[in-house]
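Table S4 entry, Hydrolase.
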Amino acid sequence: MPSVGLITTANDRKNAALQPLAVERTALVVVDIQEKLLPPIHEKERLLRNAQLLLRLAGVLNLPVLATTQYAKGLGPTVPQVAELFPASTQPMDKLEFGCFGNEAFCGAVRDLGHNRDALLVCGMETHICVLQTVLGALKEGYAVHVAADACGSRPTPGDDKALNWRLGLERMRDAGAVISSTEAAIYELLRGSGTAEFKRMLAYLK
């Protein structure tokens, strides 16, 4: 896939937001939802619930899933309630780099998806570190990126605004050209309509 660089103008951001996610073009990326990283995450229950929904959607629609861990030896594996929903073909790739596109194994896995798989739907943690740097790397490589904001999380910052790191990470990604979305918006965008077997399968999880 040719590199198009970071999206920096208002028109570029508008054009990115106008392009809907398509099943045949989209892969799900799950970043570092790990046992020892999760406990201090602000609103972690929301993150877990929505990451699980995205993985269930990936199973229903046969979306490829790429998953990572950050230094699993020290920070633990992917939390069980997320890992149990990974497809059989998905094995989390361990990394030391914060941004997934700095990791050779991850870059190889993305290339293996093929040139037609050019949109990434991203969730995970932490929003302002590994998710942010992964999204910036994906944009630099020319991928369309949608971030499920309510399936991302960060540790709280001192003071009254516990969501500051989360919010600043999302703002930076939007400024760079990512589409900031929600889990439900992404799910319905990919399902497209209510008259399909896939919609009926997902409906049980959306009620």
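The domain at 10-206 is CATH 3.40.50.850 (Rossmann fold).
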